[in-house]
Amino acid sequence: MDSHQKFHLVGLTNSCRANSYNQMVLNHIRVEFHDLVDLHLFDISKIPFYEDRAEALPFSNEISNLSALIAQSHGLIIASPEYNHSVPARLKNTVDWMSRMPNKPLLKMPVMLISASTGHLGGVRVQYELRRIFEATDSRVMIKPEVFIGKVHEKFSPAGVCTDHETSVLIKNQLQSFVDWMKNYSLNLSCLEENVAHQ
Ligand SMILES: Cc1cc2nc3c(=O)[nH]c(=O)nc-3n(C[C@H](O)[C@H](O)[C@H](O)COP(=O)(O)O)c2cc1C
Fold it and tell me: Best mutation site among 118, 121, 162 for ligand 1, i.e. most ligand atoms within 8 A of its Cβ?
């Protein structure tokens, strides 16, 4: 990809609450940084619960659409709440589905994790659970910078505007790092492919 081209990203959150703060975080990224990335927010609330017999059936539209969307994108942004120190069920279910898709959309996919919580810790624990899950799918989670937005109700207005300068700077730096990292990553991948081709 050339250095001026915008990255096409998919944004996912648990999506089961009106006025979700994590949805606000994704919206903030989509609107404020549209010159840097093209972020497509996908609503996972219609994705059915995984069961193995569903694999024998044609996949539902939501599942097929998400799988195709991720496969055509350069990376994923996951903005996740933390439920009981772990990953909310809908989000885990969505990753489980994607891991079963024949086109393997998560394989080597760059992933940026961010979390927002009304608690102090901002979802530290959910991010470490997500890292383990994305190891299983052989995805590439950016290591640093990490962003955990604690006390998020004091940092976003009810209308979804980020009112905390420090938080908006943290998000901006993380997104910029993700873009830089994806550029290096795709460069490394193409070098690697070239090297292998010459062996
Ligand atoms: C079932 C449930 C469990 C929760 N467990 C945690 C938790 O373990 N840690 C935490 O920081 N917040 C926890 N919370 C509070 C969430 O951080 C808070 O509801 C947050 O707003 C959810 O994100 P959202 O606004 O994007 O939906 C929990 C909320 C629910 C509904």
Answer: 118
Distance from residue 80's CA to the centre of ligand 1 (Å): 9
Query: Residue 137: is its pLDDT beyond 70?
Result: yes
pLDDT at 106 over 90: yes
Average pLDDT over residues 63-67: 95
The predicted structure's pLDDT at residue 70: 97
Three-state SS string over the chain comes to CCCCCCEEEEEECCCCCCCCHHHHHHHHHHHHCCCCEEEEECCHHHCCCCCHHHHHCCCCHHHHHHHHHHHCCCEEEEEECCECCECCHHHHHHHHHHHHCCCCCCCCCEEEEEEECCCCCCCHHHHHHHHHHHHHCCCEECCCCCEEECCHHHCECCCCCECCHHHHHHHHHHHHHHHHHHHHHHHHHHHHHHHHHHC
Output the pTM of the full model.
0.93
Domains of the chain from N-terminus onward? 7-198 (3.40.50.360)
158 lines ligand 1 (CB under 6 A): no
pLDDT at 56: 76
